[in-house]
Write a structure and sequence with these properties.
The structure holds two protein chains of two kinds. Helix content of chain A is about 35%, strand content about 20%. Chain A has twelve helices and twelve strands. Chain B is mostly beta strands. Chain B has one domain. The chains are: A alpha/beta, B mainly beta.
């Protein structure tokens, strides 16, 4: 099978932009990626556009502005993993020999406040059960019970990621915070305080994929791009069921995706140099350490306390600042991770560079449930 | 219900209308209405006509146990979309003897007063809604007496 190379990346910063439409942001990220890949009109044979809230023909609107239509353009929705889903489709099509060059991009302009989702039924809303952060809090509470995680551990995740985010020009929040201030911010759903939760926002990211030869050196390769959904049984998985089984053996969707990605890439978690993972909330990052196999079950707090996941540590996680610094534009977020990791592997990530990074992993998980894991190597 | 108060039901006599039919019994002792798969034997809530675990359509409606053990909990401090009731309110997961864990409101809004494994009892509580249903009620779990 063909190798899939990253020929170019582009990003529109994540934040709030009253003066720009979702299409404007997409145009900027796509133009940047196409320019880097030296791809002009007619230079790609398919496009996959990730968005959860963009609406009908979101991808077409972006490419219409550039006169780059005629090829298949497919919008992809998989919640927080939408970008990972689009990348899986694009990379898979190249591997299958269908195309030589594919454009994959993600765009989003999220509603403000607690997100009203068509996911919940009216009786659930009326009963107060459509409280998305409360489900995060229930997961956090279980992590505290099962893995000995403390509220201070949760605060330290925010401290780490916000410290990393200071040097990311594309992040929404670029100031350091102290643990006491995190714990002093408004209590949203115990144990989660406001600053422990990422902010839904706006942004765009784009990646040009190209079929590569076996022996081309120096290129960043998409070694695995995997999407998985939940298995039934876990009451707290991101499919948000009203009931589940009293059974701890059901693997999480992130574990399913990671296991498949490691196998596809022929590596294990011990081979990773740098990780960008889903830190929707501080506990979600710690849980991801366990689900991705960065530590044994129950070992997340210790891994973080050792400093292993901070820049300079053994396995830096979210050197970009994570969603806690960048905010989360659903459709763009997974590809934003890919863009930042491509810079890591090229060695041009600036202040946040992980020295000598050669193997990188990007992880998202969210409603559906959907989980994506992308492995990039150079 | 005041914080710390133990299991009891609000007055649901007269015109009480459940937020959705088929979720729970209105008459005390209250029970959640779930289903049991005749093929794999597993329980589910709410009741569906197919089994979400094995896909079979040989599923029987059952009344689930009215008591269980607290498995996870928090409190909601600002009103989520579509909710018109008071905040804060408790929110948690209760494990029932049938081997299932159910997401529900909790009557106890102070997480510090709850602990893992404590006994919980099913109750019915009022929730304001914005249409002609004057006394809408939903299910919740309240701290119960250990026996």
């Amino acid at each position: 099978m063909s190798e899939v190379h990253v020929a170019g990346v582009g990003i529109h910063p994540f934040g709030r932009f009253e003066d720009r439409t979702i299409t404007d942001m997409g145009v900027r990220a796509v133009r940047e990626a196409l320019a880097e890949a030296d791809v002009a009109q007619g230079g790609f044979q398919a496009a996959f556009c990730a968005t959860a809230y963009g609406g009908v023909a979101s991808g077409h609107k972006v490419l219409s502005r550039l006169g780059m239509t005629g090829m298949p353009i497919v919008d992809v929705e998989a919640g927080c993993a939408s970008g990972g889903a689009a990348l899986m489709l694009g990379a898979g099509a190249i591997r299958a020999g269908a195309y030589d060059t594919v454009l994959v991009f993600g765009i989003e302009k999220m509603p403000k406040g607690m997100i009203r989702s068509s996911f919940f039924e009216p009786w659930q809303e009326e009963s107060g059960l459509a409280a998305t952060p409360a489900y995060f809090a229930l997961r956090a509470q279980r992590l505290m019970q099962d893995s000995g995680v403390t509220k201070d551990d949760l605060a330290q995740v925010v401290v780490k990621n916000r410290r990393h985010g200071v040097h990311n020009p594309d992040a929404m929040f670029r100031s350091e915070v102290e643990a006491a201030a995190v714990l002093g911010s408004r209590l949203v759903c115990d144990p989660l305080h406001l600053w422990m939760l990422c902010t839904p926002n706006e942004g765009a990211a784009a990646v040009v994929l190209r079929r590569g030869g076996q022996h081309s050196t120096g290129a960043v390769r998409v070694t695995a791009a995997v999407l998985r959904s939940h298995l039934p049984g876990s009451v707290l998985n991101e499919s948000t069921p009203m009931s589940g089984l009293a059974d701890e053996s059901v693997p999480a969707p992130s574990t399913l995706a990671a296991t498949a990605a490691y196998e596809e890439a022929g590596i294990g978690p011990e081979d990773l140099d740098v990780v960008e993972c889903q830190d929707t909330d501080a506990a979600r990052e710690l849980l991801s350490y366990e689900e991705l196999g960065l530590c044994a079950p129950g070992g997340a707090a210790r891994l973080a306390q050792e400093g292993a996941t901070a820049l300079g540590g053994r396995i830096p996680v979210n050197p970009s600042g994570g969603l806690l610094s960048k905010g989360e534009p659903l459709g763009a977020s997974a590809l934003g991770q890919v863009v930042t990791l491509v810079h890591q592997l090229r060695g041009d990530a600036g202040h946040n560079q992980v020295t000598g990074a050669r193997v990188a992993l990007a992880h998202t998980v969210g409603r559906g449930a959907n989980a994506s894991v992308v492995v990039l190597t150079r | 219900m005041a914080p710390g108060e133990t299991a009891s039901s609000v007055d649901v006599t007269g015109v009480a209308v459940p937020v959705r039919e088929g979720l729970f019994t209105l008459d005390a002792p209250h029970r959640l209405l779930g289903s049991r798969c005749e093929v794999c034997g597993r329980h589910h809530f709410p009741c569906h006509d197919t089994c979400p675990y094995c896909g079979a359509d040989d599923v029987a409606p059952v009344e689930l146990s009215g008591t269980g053990r607290l498995w996870s909990w928090t409190a909601v401090t600002s009103a989520p979309p579509g909710y018109r009731g008071e905040v804060p309110y408790g929110f948690g997961v209760v494990e029932l003897p049938e081997g299932i864990r159910v997401v529900a409101r909790l009557t106890e809004p102070d997480p510090a007063r709850l602990s893992a494994g404590q006994r919980m009892e099913l109750v019915v509580v009022s929730v304001p809604v914005d249409d002609e249903r004057q006394k809408a009620v939903t299910y919740a779990f309240a701290p119960g007496h250990d026996q």
